[in-house]
Design a protein that fits this description.
Length: 157
Amino acid sequence: MLEQIFTYFTIDIIYIWLNIGVIPFWLMLIFFPTSKICNIFVSSIFPIIIFSAIYLYLVYFFFLSDYDFLGNFALYLSLDDLKDLFSNDGFLILFWIHFLAINLFCGSWIVKDYQKFAISKYLTFFPILITYFIGPLGLFIYWIIRIFYAKKISLFD
């Protein structure tokens, strides 16, 4: 049975499902941020559990296929080592799950934060959309907007 799962859930299939599967979460964040469905499915631990389950599945899959996990630490040594790691499909898919999870978490935080400061959801549409594609830039744009609504600069919250 486990072999059947491994033949169906290949890295390419998981990549496609990740990219399609994250879109409803972002659509809920953008268009229905105050709905109960958004609170249950996006602003909770639910998406992180899904990403974690996929991540654990892949780690187990790579463990069975003798993936060199210690080689991942080479990313800290040089830019060339990082390039070599990104040429490995296993490392790349693990990184992609990490990227999607962190960006979704940041988008969810932006929604909760702008609700706390009563910032218009229309004003935060652009930062949330940018966070989907380029997480840190979207957070920075939101932070600039937040300064004007909170009337203070806070380096921590």
